[in-house]
Design a protein that fits this description.
Elements lengths: L1 H11 L41 E3 L2 E3 L9 E4 L18 H11 L3 E7 H6 L19 H14 L3 E8 L22 H14 L6 E5 L23 H15 L4 E5 L1 H4 L18 E6 L11 H11 L14 E5 L7 H4 L4 H15 L3 E4 L33 H8 L9
Parallel strand pairs: 3-4, 3-10, 4-5, 5-6, 6-7, 7-8, 8-9, 9-10
Antiparallel strand pairs: 1-2
Helix pairs in contact: 1-10, 1-11, 2-4, 5-6, 8-10
Length: 414
């Protein structure tokens, strides 16, 4: 089967011996003009890509006009109850950043909440036990230090407004499915964005603002794409939010998530987002096996993905834009999580085949070796979907890491 061949290729490319390894590939791919090594070159510490990033059709380009394929990891925790990225109790932030770079990825998605920005509490020593130089600091100062560590390794950062209050994500009962709540109004959402964009105005590693995560029904209100109702029209809201961001920093990319839990961009083909600054728009989607029950093979999965968002990548699509699949995951507790003849392993391989064939920008959920404290997480417990082990020192699964590394080098371009 195709997915089994894909898996075997991954194993052939890495004899990692338990250590972080450089990704396969690098440099120009297939001789395509404009297709560079940004997604597949480990690079040297401290070497950010040529900035600012720009958009050309469905491609993200660096400041030299070379394709910059987002190959990302999610490092969550700042949106949770402790207000800091998880793992700072286990490893120094600079060591974590170095391990991310050695995986071969080029970018980190950092979730945050409006509550974090508005309250900015002093962080408890327990959650930064391996970073005691940050003792007594406020949450945003810790986030500053994490971003500085990532920048020092040449990694770019996407700031993701994951939720309004801490810890509430991602179902239809948590009240955070819209870009506002009864407490955190749209005005406060915009104010938080203005504050955090201003804070990182002089930090070149921050390259994008993801306006909101996983749009879905909340408190009986369902977001839609268009229609003009300010309470439900996500398309109009992202134009307000995106323009507020760009007014402060016109060099940022603006990331707009799909509807229905970040799975549906069908309306964007005929009603695209229009921002005040051109060539800044990136769409984002998620995927999970539960999105399309019973659809697991590459052939079966292609249809729903093309229908829901893949059509926006077509060369003849007048409103095409980059699509970044910035949340997908599988478990690392068994080899069958990554590759199998059925179930989750088959779905995961099928998704990787689609992402590879269409050369889609991507971001794995999550980097975390351990969970962050919250309604759906226990502080310090293993994250069984995470890329790192519970010490935040090595891969939790070499099989999983190698499969993701195969997606890093670009194989298409402008």
């Amino acid at each position: 089967m195709k997915q089994l061949v894909f898996f075997a290729l991954g194993l052939a490319l890495c004899a990692c011996g338990g250590q972080m390894e450089d990704p396969p590939g690098g440099g120009a791919i297939g001789g395509n003009p404009g297709v560079g090594g940004s997604g597949g070159d480990v690079g040297r510490p401290g070497e950010l890509p040529a900035l600012p990033l720009r958009i050309l059709g469905r491609w993200i380009l660096d400041g030299d006009g070379t394709r910059f394929k987002l190959a990302s990891v999610n490092w969550y925790g700042a949106e949770k109850r402790d207000h800091v990225p998880a793992g700072l109790e286990r490893a120094h932030r600079s060591d974590i950043a170095r391990r991310i770079r050695r995986m071969g990825v080029n970018s980190v998605r950092l979730p945050w909440s409006n509550e974090l920005v508005e309250t900015d509490p002093v962080v408890g020593d327990e959650v930064i036990a391996a970073n005691l130089d940050l003792g007594g600091r406020r949450a945003l100062e810790v986030l500053d230090a994490v971003i500085e560590a990532l920048a020092a390794e040449g990694l770019v950062v996407i700031l993701d407004n994951h939720s309004s209050d801490t810890d509430a994500c991602c179902d239809e009962t948590d009240g955070n499915g819209l870009w506002y709540t009864s407490t955190y109004t749209e005005e406060r959402w915009l104010a938080s964005w203005r504050a955090i964009v201003t804070r990182y105005l002089d930090q070149p590693a921050v390259v994008a603002a993801e306006l909101r995560n996983a749009l879905r029904p909340a408190n009986g209100v369902t977001p839609v794409w268009g229609g003009g109702d300010p309470a439900t029209d996500w398309h109009a809201a992202v134009q307000r939010g995106g323009n507020a961001v760009l007014e402060i920093n016109p060099d940022l990319l603006v990331v707009v998530q799909a509807l229905d839990g970040a799975s549906d961009l069908r309306a964007a083909g005929t009603l695209p987002v229009q921002l005040a600054v051109e060539n800044r728009l990136v769409y984002a989607v998620h995927d999970d096996q539960r999105f399309y029950p019973g659809v697991n093979t590459p052939e079966d999965l292609t249809g729903p993905l093309e229908d829901h968002w893949g059509h926006l990548l077509a060369y003849d699509q007048p409103n095409k834009a980059p699509i970044w699949m910035n949340e997908f995951s599988t478990c690392h507790t068994s080899v069958t999580c990554v590759n199998d003849e059925s179930g989750r392993g088959l779905w995961f391989q099928s998704l990787l085949v689609y992402l590879s064939q269409n050369d889609v920008d991507w971001g794995y959920w999550a980097l975390n070796g351990t969970q962050a404290r919250g309604m759906e997480g226990t502080f310090g417990e293993e994250d069984t979907n995470g890329l790192l082990d519970t010490f935040w020192r090595a891969p939790a699964s070499l099989d999983l890491l190698v499969q993701l590394q195969l997606l890093i080098p670009p194989n298409q371009g402008p």
